Amino acid sequence: MRYRINSPKVIHQIFDTEVVIVNLESGNYYSVGGSGIDIWRFLDAGKSRDEITKVFAANRENTAKMESFLDEIEREQLVVAAPDNSAAREVAAPKSFVAPTIEKFTDMRDLLLLDPIHELDESGWPKNLPPVSDQK
Amino acid sequence: MSAGPGQFFDAAHEVFLSAQSNEQDYSIGGLVARFQIAGPAVGERLTRAFAHLQLPAQQHVDLTICAWDSVGTGTKMVPPPWTESDYGPRGEIRSYNNERFRTAFDQGTSALSMIDLDRKLALFWTRDAQEVPAYESGAPFRTILNWWAERNDRVLVHCGAIGTECGAAILAGPGGSGKSTTALLCAQAGWNYLADDYCLLRVAEPSRVFSLYNSVKLGHDQLPQFNTLAGKSTAMDGDKHLFFLNEIWPERIARSLSCRALLLPRISQTRETSIQPASPGEALRAIAPSTIFQLSGAGQTSFQRLSSFVERIPVRHLNLGRDFEKIPERISASLSEI
């Protein structure tokens, strides 16, 4: 199975020690560490799940941790299925395997307007939210 | 939908032009913005935060913002050509945002913001400016300035900024992390003040931070730390007092400074303030999500610029101790070591 990063909904930045990922639709953001950084790099290059598994399949424990990480980022909709014929770029092989980590932050969700606007005035503009002075 | 963004923009602009307005030029992010204001309460409530950036009338203008309210001008706003289902999660109006136009309605402020990037012309309309909440008075036109900044190699950032002759320390972190307290403690100690909540950043080298608003918000329980501000609060935003520092310490307000360091304040349980290295990833998490999710239209471009910024600037955790008076001294020592 091949994935692609769920852009433009998902944006990311890869650093040496962390990948920072933001889901613009849900308001959640993430910090990926350990070999999750390499796995994300591979996914960004268009590598398939099988190709990534082969790179890290030194032992069963590694494979299980990697599979679990891939399941989680798929569940969080950070990656989505891509056509199996998409071309992948070459990526340097990682030196070692460190259990992938992913930390999820949800503190920005309140800033999104999750409730739809449903009250309009007679001219069609949304009604004021009472009391206005307490809103932020 | 009957009218596209261009037609709606022109119709709304016609409404503004039917009202009597006055104008004032400002230095925003090192460029020139002209505010055309109609309605007494609009001028009173939405320009005070920019007072430190006033310019004499300029020949060349990079952005014109037409701001008005219906109650103060006695005008009738054209109805929106979109429906309830077109409002996005950050107030953006679906189908009214493209390369040229950006459109958003902020329900908290009950205000429409729209920009024609090609004409460098923006509209800000609200029903009644008397009802504009205090937080909007402290940081007006954020949405418009964010769109415009993006087009002009700048980024509107959720952060504080203070500085010395060494340059500016950018303060990034969520609400309650100590940005405002730190900024105000440094201003009280005689430092240059640029921002406690939002500023403009030019990321390209040499990176520079620009003050946008001379306002600062302070929780009621923090007031005893700042005796010099007693009785000078102009409004309340929830339980926070709003101050305009240009009216209190005009000589301490800086329009812009070069960027020296990015500090990530957090409240510690120790007496002494300490500073320790932080990673670019920690810095990006502190500065990018709160910037992106607070500002309609902010996304990939802001994120990329901030990513580039955190990779190039020294980043430190600022562990704020209980001995507040020592905080500016500790930051100053750190800035001079960087």
Tell me what you see in this structure:
The complex is a heterodimer of chains A (about 140) and B (about 350). Chain A contains 3 helices and 6 strands; from the N terminus they run E-E-E-E-H-H-H-E-E. Chain A has helices spanning about 35-45, 50-55, 60-75, and strands at about 1-5, 10-15, 20-25, 30-35, 80, 100-105. In chain A, strands 2-3-4-6 form a 4-stranded antiparallel β-sheet, with helices on one face. Chain A has a two-stranded antiparallel ribbon with strand order 1-5. In chain A, about 30% of the residues are buried. In chain B, the strands form 3 sheets. In chain B, strands 8, 9, 10, 11, 12, 13, 17, 18 and 19 form a 9-stranded mixed β-sheet that branches. Chain B has a 7-stranded mixed β-sheet with strand order 3-1-2-4-7-6-5, with helices on both faces. Chain B has a 3-stranded antiparallel β-sheet with strand order 14-16-15. In chain B, about 55% of the residues are buried. Chain B is built from 9 helices and 19 strands. Chain B is of the alpha+beta class. The interface of A and B includes residues 8 and 18 of A.
